[in-house]
Each structure stands twice: as C-alpha cells, then as structure tokens.
C-alpha cells in the first residue's frame, strides 16, 4: 500500500504544479488584458480629446474665414465708393501705365525719310529722346502710340524694324516718328529744342514741336513678375 501511495504521489505533484502554473499564467494573462484594456481606454480618451480639440479649432477657423471674407467684401465695397481710395487707385494706374491720360504737353514729329540723311533714327536715338523728355520733367510719354513704362524695351528687329513694347513702330522705307509728352509745356519745349532738335535738324531730319493737349493711350502689355516678390515687413 505504501508503494501505491509513492507511485501516486509523483503524478499528483506534477498535476498540482501544472495547475498552479496555469493559475499563475491565467492571472498574469488577466493582468496583461486588464492593462491593455486600460491603455486602450486611455488612448481612446486621448483620441476623443484630440478629435474634440480639432473640431473646435475647425469651427473657430471657419468662423475666422467668414469674418475675413466679410471684411474683404466690405473693403471692396468701400474701394468702389470711397472717392479718396478711387483717386489713389487712378494715380497708381497712371504710374503703372494702365490708365489712358491726357493733359498739356508737347507733340514732337520727326521725319527721317529724306534720302540725303546719312544716319536715320535708331533705337539709341529714340531712347535718348525719351530720356531727355524725362529729364525735362515729362510725366507721361508715348512713341508712335506706344506708352513708355518701366518695362518698355526699344530694340531693333531684323535690319531696320524698331520695336517698342515688342510692337513695330516703323517700316523699312521709313515713317515719321511722333513723340507725345505731358508736362510743363515751356520746360519740355525748351529742353528738347536745345538738347535734341538742333542736332537732329543738322543731320537732315525734319523736326516740329507743337504745344497742345495731348492724349496718351494706356500700356497694352502685361506685367509678369516671376522672381520679384513683395517684402513683408513686421509691424
């Protein structure tokens, strides 16, 4: 009988050890499950908090957008009715050349079609004439209907065609040049006569200067700034 008990003791012991291990494993697993559930719950709470904050920020941004749109609309309406702002806008359009203008000034006609002329009017000559008028205080200038602006280029295309603002202003057989300038008529006429007209006439060109109310068209080209960007200053 003692031998039977000894034979039974080992399996019972092994079973007890296995049962204890399973119970310990189950408790440990349950603890891990509980910890995982707690972490998941905390993450869910955090996600809900983040989502709630995002929704609140989104609502605020939408409100800010509506406010800014309303302010922009109000400013546009104000520009459309405020005489001072409209006057400033017109001044800016005149400065950039997109507004046709008229005023007292001079009209200069230059004819280089005389076959005896050794040196017809060239691009450098036209640029020099424009600079002389600017030096004399001309506010607005045009050459054969082309408004002179900051981006105006006066170049030669081919052997004899002169381009102003990329538009041909003469023909191969020649054509009279007409320069219009708005400004003080006496100053413009005196400067151009002394600095340019005398030399042009000596070269055989026909030159006439008329004081009148001149009308100068707007610049028909387009402004495009690819590299230049406005400087934002901190207030």
Architecture overview:
With 235 residues, the chain is α+β, with helices and mostly antiparallel strands. It folds into 2 domains: 1-81; 101-216, Alpha-Beta Plaits (2-Layer Sandwich). 53% of the residues lie in helices and 19% in strands. Strands 3-2-7-1-8 form a 5-stranded antiparallel β-sheet. Strand 2 and strand 3 form a beta hairpin. The longest helix has 80 residues, at 2-81. The mean pLDDT is 78.
Quick structural overview:
By secondary structure, this protein is of the alpha+beta class. It has helices spanning about 1-80, 85-95, 125-135, 185-200, and strands at about 100-110, 140-145, 145, 155, 160-165, 165-170, 175-180, 205-215. It folds into two domains: about 1-80; about 100-215, 2-Layer Sandwich (Alpha-Beta Plaits), CATH 3.30.70.
The shape is elongated
Number of helices: 4
CATH fold node name of the largest domain: Alpha-Beta Plaits
> Main sheet?
5 strands, antiparallel
Q: How helix-rich are the residues, as a percent range?
A: 40-55%
Order of helices and strands: HHEHEEEEEEHE
C-alpha termini separation = 103 Å
Strand order of the largest sheet: 3-2-7-1-8
Mean of the pLDDT scores? 78
What is the CATH class name of the largest domain?
Alpha Beta
Category from helices, strands and their pairing: alpha+beta
Name the CATH architecture of the largest domain.
2-Layer Sandwich
How many structural domains can be distinguished in the coordinates?
Answer: 2
Low-confidence stretches: none
What would CATH call the homologous superfamily of the largest domain? Protein of unknown function DUF881
How many extended strands?
8
Instruction: Tell me what portion of residues adopts beta-strand conformation.
Output: 15-25%
Radius of gyration: 44 Å
